Amino acid sequence: MANDKRLRVSVIGAGWYAAQNHIPALAACDGVALDGVSRLGADELERVRSHFGFAFASEDYRDVLARKPEAVIVSSPHHLHYEHATAALAAGAHVLCEKPMTLDPAQAWSLVEAARSAKRSLLIANGYHYLPGVSDARRLILGGAVGRIEHVACSFISATRAVFSGGAGMASWNAAFFRPDPSTWRNPSQGGGFAYGQMSHSVALSLWLTGLQPHSVAARTLDQDGVDLCDSAIAQCAGGAVMSFSGAAAAPEGRRAYLRLLISGSEGVLDLAFDRDWCELSRHDGANRAIDIAPGQWVYHCRGPVEALVALARGAGDNCSPGENGALTTAVLAAILQSARDGGNPAPVDGRNSPAS
């Protein structure tokens, strides 16, 4: 191993999605060595180790970190992200953490500071940020293409009803490398529900594209057995802009998720429809334009964050899903759920005065 120049990357939490996306994406990167892997269940652990060719495996993640990998992917259940990401940063690794970053805003901001102190990159697994054309859309918005941002409307409806509402889960899981434990999606105390499970995508994307800083949220949810299936929220931002977030576990299984954003400002509107591969700027002065998105380019995948982790660990690349964005997203999601518990009364957003972009 001393003469191996490859980047050594380890995985903590090798469950359904890690086996479906993260580990294959790592294996496809040039010059990467799959060093250590950790998950509970000796048989499952050996299966993932032997199938993907990891050099080492242990049910104790600390054994994996003791090997000092240069980069670590944390894809354990939501409520364990903070513990595992904190330990990985302390071990000197660059870290890609699954979303939601944590369930507690204070813990999320603590991770941001830990990464900053360790001089290590911290990324969140928000794959939408890395799809073709998204960085172009962000540059347009931050460059003033819609003028001063006044309103953002974001709606996300995904095919996850079977995930959050009980029963056997999604039919597609039957062919997965690992079948997820439904309890990891349905226990509210562990981040189960649509807000943490799915709006962690759409809220993060809205904040990343706009750079807005919400300071309070008023929200309502539709719950089943204590698990939120539908969420609607209004966020007030520094500078006066208003953001609306809505989401529902309602699309039929097999249907591409509906993800729509309308970003409105003093000079025009940017219309993004991810389920239609569509992005168009309409301005009051007629200087309209479209971002060319080829059919299927906005179908969701999460290879981008994995590839970015590898590049950043080598001192190159761009972090389009930084810890600051993840922490602010966690703060907004926590405020959404707190407001809903309080009957829709506004809840403060723990932004720590830190920019999300």
Please outline the helices and strands:
Layout: E1 7-12, H1 16-27, E2 32-38, H2 42-52, E3 56-58, H3 61-65, E4 71-74, H4 81-90, E5 94-97, H5 105-118, E6 122-124, H6 134-142, E7 149-158, H7 161-164, H8 183-186, H9 194-210, E8 214-224, E9 227-237, E10 242-249, E11 258-265, E12 268-273, E13 278-283, E14 289-290, H10 303-313, H11 323-341, E15 347-348
Helix pairs in contact: 1-10, 4-5, 5-11, 9-11
Which structural traits does this protein have?
alpha/beta; Dihydrodipicolinate Reductase, domain 2; 11 helices; 9-stranded mixed beta sheet; 6-stranded parallel beta sheet; 15 strands; 2 domains; 357 residues; Rossmann fold; 32% helix
Biggest sheet layout: 9 strands, mixed
The number of domains is 2
What integer value in Å does the Rg equal? Answer: 20 Å
How would the global form be characterised? globular
Tally of contiguous helical segments: 11
Q: Write down how many β-strands occur, each being a DSSP E stretch of 2 or more residues.
A: 15
In CATH, the topology of the largest domain is named: Dihydrodipicolinate Reductase, domain 2
Give the proportion of residues in helices: 25-40%
CATH architecture of the largest domain: 2-Layer Sandwich
Outline the low-pLDDT stretches: none
Q: Could you tell me the mean pLDDT?
A: 94
Order of helices and strands: EHEHEHEHEHEHEHHHEEEEEEEHHE
Instruction: State the name of the first-level CATH class of the largest domain.
Output: Alpha Beta
C-alpha termini separation: 38 Å
Strand content: 25-35%
Structural class: alpha/beta
Q: What's the arrangement of strands in the largest beta sheet?
A: 14-13-12-11-7-10-9-8-15
CATH superfamily of the largest domain: Dihydrodipicolinate Reductase, domain 2
